[in-house]
Every structure is written in structure tokens, then in C-alpha cells.
Amino acid sequence: MYPYSLLIFSSLALAGWAQSTNSSAVRKFCRNVPGDPGFPTQIQWASLNASVSGRLVHVVPFAQFCKTLPGGACTSQQLLSSVFRDEIPGAMYQANWEQDYDSFPPSLCEPRLRVCGQGNVPLFGVLAESTSDIQAGVKFARSHNLRLAIKASGHDYLGRSTAKDSLLISTHKLQNISFTDNFVVGGQSLGPAVTLGSGVRLQQMYAATRAEG
């Protein structure tokens, strides 16, 4: 607690102190975004790309991706397909998480719009194929104070599979499935088990377990 003598300070001084304290807290916890001195340079992004064997991509919103397809648009089936969406780094199951309604004007990317904003879609993404790819992405985000988003399929109902101005780590390609007859944790046998890569869909798991018997 502060001493009672602080009460003699003017309200203006107290307001100034509070504003200074809040500003310091904001500066401490804010992540670097484009335009900030600490945001990675093109050379630093290129270095990350080399460390993950060329698996760094510029992430685009789903509707913008659709414009690159034959005919310049996704079909109605593709727009509603969760399987189709989870293949695309910038696509979420719930399209509202891709949009940034808090900006002014809002940064949106929808099929009906001619010009797309980046919205809440990450700027760059590591399409991880190994643990070392994930480690490289996490270390890069930490060293450059970047916000980090992790996406397997993009089905998080709270929108945590994406984040504005962030570096995305996509684990969709981690498709390994392995079985063991004797899964041991802390020295205790728990019996048969299946271990899944984070990119494995439920349908794939069910098919693999049926085949395993």
C-alpha cells in the first residue's frame, strides 16, 4: 500500500501517474506489428524461411485465396466445407473470426468484396512438417516479440486459431498416427493407445483405428 501522504497530491498528478503506469504496462505487453521498429525485416523473414526449409508463406484471407482458383471464386460447397477450409492457412471454420470488425473502417475479406483487407488473418505462416519447424517459429516469435497463433484445422470456436498481425504455425501437415499395445505414463501401464499428430482429423483417426482393429 502507498503511504497516506500521497493523498495530498493533486488529482491531476494522480491522473498523470496512473496514465504513465498504464502506458508502461501497455508498452510492456504489446506485440510488434508492421511499422514498429522491432518488426522483422525482410532479411529476418528470409532467415526464418531458410530455417524451416522454405515452409514460410504469406497468409491470405480465405476469400482472397478463392480468387486465385479457376473461375476466380470458390464454389458454394467449398465455402461451407470444413475439410476444404482446414487445408488453407488463412481460413477458419467460422468465417467471422477472419474479419476485423474493430478497425475503422473494418478490415474485411468476403466473397462479395472486390478488395480484401487482411482482417484478423495472420501475416505469415510456418507450414510445419516437423517439431523443429514448430520450434523455429516459436523462437522467432519470441525473439521478435510477435503474437503467435496456432492452427491445426481452424475450428476453435473462440477464434484462437488466428490473430491479427501474428505469425501462424500451421500443424495441419502433422498427420502421423501410431499405435502401441502398452502406453506407459509415469511408470504406469495404461494399456493400448493411439498417438495422433495434431493435423489428424477425427474421420482419419476413426478409419485408422478400425483398420488397426
UniProtKB/TrEMBL annotation:
<dbReference type="GO" id="GO:0071949">
    <property type="term" value="F:FAD binding"/>
</dbReference>
<dbReference type="InterPro" id="IPR036318">
    <property type="entry name" value="FAD-bd_PCMH-like_sf"/>
</dbReference>
<dbReference type="InterPro" id="IPR016169">
    <property type="entry name" value="FAD-bd_PCMH_sub2"/>
</dbReference>
<dbReference type="InterPro" id="IPR006094">
    <property type="entry name" value="Oxid_FAD_bind_N"/>
</dbReference>
<feature type="domain" description="FAD-binding PCMH-type">
    <location>
        <begin position="118"/>
        <end position="213"/>
    </location>
</feature>
<dbReference type="InterPro" id="IPR016166">
    <property type="entry name" value="FAD-bd_PCMH"/>
</dbReference>
<feature type="signal peptide">
    <location>
        <begin position="1"/>
        <end position="18"/>
    </location>
</feature>
<protein>
    <recommendedName>
        <fullName>FAD-binding PCMH-type domain-containing protein</fullName>
    </recommendedName>
</protein>
<keyword id="KW-0732">Signal</keyword>
<keyword id="KW-0560">Oxidoreductase</keyword>
<dbReference type="Pfam" id="PF01565">
    <property type="entry name" value="FAD_binding_4"/>
</dbReference>
<comment type="similarity">
    <text>Belongs to the oxygen-dependent FAD-linked oxidoreductase family.</text>
</comment>
<dbReference type="InterPro" id="IPR006093">
    <property type="entry name" value="Oxy_OxRdtase_FAD_BS"/>
</dbReference>
<dbReference type="InterPro" id="IPR050432">
    <property type="entry name" value="FAD-linked_Oxidoreductases_BP"/>
</dbReference>
<dbReference type="GO" id="GO:0016491">
    <property type="term" value="F:oxidoreductase activity"/>
</dbReference>
